[in-house]
Request: fold
Amino acid sequence: MLRYTRRDTLALGASALALANFWGRDVLAQLPIKDVPAPDLRIEKGATLRLMRPSKFVQPDEDVWKANTAKFTQKTGVEVKIDWESWEDIRPKMAVAASIGSGPDIVMGWYDDPHQYPDKVIPLDDIAKYLGERNGGWYPTPTKYCIRDGRWLAVPVGVGGGAMTFRTSWLKRVGYEKFPTDFPGMLDMARKLKAAGKPGGLALGNAVGDGNTWHWILWGFGAAVVDEKNRVILDSPETYAALEYARELYQTFIPGTLSWLDPNNNKAFLADEISWTHNGISIYFVAKNSKDPKVQAIAEDMDHAVPPIGPYGKPTATAAVVSAFIFKHCKYPNAAKAYLVHMLEAEQYGAWQTACIGYWQPSMKVFEQLPFWDADPKLAPFRHIPANLQYYGWRGTLGYASAATLADYVVVEMFANAASGKMSPKEAAKAAARRAERYYRERA
Reply:
């Protein structure tokens, strides 16, 4: 845990504060930021705050967030304590705070998690309107996770979108100049790489980011958890086809993927154990900045691609969207709102985005124009993820049921059961449908 006071900003030193501004004011001036009236947030006297947010996968995520927080404390005098939690621990700790009415004031949670606690969070319509108008508008899918009945329960902070991450030399050895663009091609490539001794792998454990990637293949076959009327439709021929495909693909994986969480494919790729996976930009970031020549060589020999398209015929990319909300038990709601505004203003947000080289893609449209996106062609597949993103809960409406189904890993475990052979595709689909129906019967 970290608590920032005015005195602590001095301890951070000039270098940490400079890090938050390293991208330069000339870049800030180039962005078409609109001059719109800011909400009147009169920070409460003696205010202190506690934030819970996901731990970093790339170091600048933490470094620049700390420095930007220190700037807020220096500017306002508001002390901020930050709890850096593992991705899988955010939800259970958030649930405890919601239940007992105590704990962190602000939570950076996942996807539509705020929909599980709509009566326990403070509406953020004022700051959402201001930030959206100022920064070119919010992207549609991140916004979906934050709005319920026309009210903003949260604001989308970042989009942790993934792309196919692969070793170019190994693909060329098995006859592929680039990553395949369709499902049959990906399966053929995966089989050949396995035969060549350099398999790939996708997380099949209950990983918040990487495990939920399997929705991309579910949707790629035209299947979904629910239809437009929130009726559960998992038990369908389209789902069976997706699970049969997953079972065949799983045969090409490196052993152990059934227990993989979010860090595991990163480690396997950087250890030169796998030739391809689906991940955020963190693998490339770490390899590119490593002092180990062997790891640097991996960075030179890797690239990214947009995920292949399935029989459905449309892109079905996924991303780990982080949504920030304020609990009603917060004693200083104006200070909490002011903190979120500060962190999402261009001066701070642009520095954070740039330092992470797109690991967290922007939730507001103007930041797609940040110069770093043009500096390295290997970043290109990540740039437009927020604009093309499919939302978890598709095709239905978001709410308690969609959030609970996602948080309970219904789809992830369905794929794991079918891929591993624990259940047949039909059995896995039927079991998952029963689990989803429990949530949708309770509350949509």
The two ends are 36 Å apart (CA to CA). Residues 47 and 331 are 8 Å apart (CA to CA). The longest helix spans residues 59-76. The first strand starts at residue 2 and ends at 4.
